[in-house]
Amino acid sequence: MPNVARFPAEWEPQSAVLIAWPNADTDWADRLGEVEETYIALVAAITRFQPAVIIVADEDVEAYARARLSSARIDMDGVRFVEAPYDDTWLRDSGPISLREGPGFRLLDFRFTGWGGKFDASQDDLLVERLHEAGTFLNSARQSIDFALEGGAIETDGAGTLLSTWQCLHERHPEVSREELTAKLAGWLQQDRVLWLDHGYLEGDDTDAHIDTLARFAGSDAIVFQGCDDPTDSHYAELQAMANELAALTTRDGLPYRLFPLPWPQPVIDEGRRLAASYANFLIVNGAVLMPAYGDPADASAQAVLAEAFPDRQIVPVPCRPLIWQNGSLHCITMQLPKGLVA
């Protein structure tokens, strides 16, 4: 009997979290000191629960990162470095999408186009192939797929239901119908239900409305989503429409999802540009949820909502305000690796 592949949910057991260290050759160059502090806090949070695998551009970057992390008193036994070239550090979109297949894994390597050609991504598009060839992953086969898809654009409950936004996939593939896209995603990702959202966006987001900034599964019967309760805010109508869409969705059993709206942070303006601060961009690890914190009064309320949605996990805030300068947050810079995929 052939092995049936399965796309695991983020809350299933993990072996590590994959990140790439920011350096002067990435888009972080102008604010490297600030963003390094976020990465140090992130690695400190990850290694409380599981290992971190850190991609570095070269030996010098590794030596520097090792020194910064060691000086922050992080347990370096939980840190592993892998050397590979990269354009930037958005591993959610350039890293592997891992399916469990029998006793091993199938790594889906979709094309990464820099979010529809907005940025150069020639090195990032080769990242999964290079890491796989270097032996980073155990017991795995890489499947190259000539189709643009980012990990931040898809969300699964691990039981065959996929959640995505039509805006993002249609922007990448305007010639493909919704029915065709549904069939393609269901086939590659081994899903039997694809739920589409037609509403929801964040100003300052250059991903064309990635689902991981808007709405996330919290088990097979619950969805956590970014709310907006300020009628004067430019996001209000769209996020209210998204909330109504989510309320109309049903689980596999035909029941409404349990919904957990996240609070709306105050606008963050940088050099006249509004930045996309979303609490939905959290990362689930073994025993915890790492929550993006923005130094906003709503941080505490967001933590309380996540504690209610994930009652069996610690909620650990990670300071992420420097990340939104480059239009992403905590989930965007990470990729979880299922248990057994790395040593």
Automatic annotation (TrEMBL):
Q: Where is the signal peptide?
A: none
- Is Hydrolase tagged as a keyword? yes
The family database entries (Gene3D superfamilies) matched by this protein are listed as: L-arginine/glycine Amidinotransferase, Chain A
Q: In terms of domain of life, where is this protein from?
A: Bacteria
Provide the alphabetized UniProt keywords: Hydrolase
A Pfam family the protein falls into = PAD_porph
The family database entries (InterPro entries) matched by this protein are listed as: Peptidyl-Arg-deiminase_porph
According to UniProt, the name of this protein is: Agmatine/peptidylarginine deiminase
Per the UniProt entry, what species is this protein from, by scientific name? Lysobacter niastensis
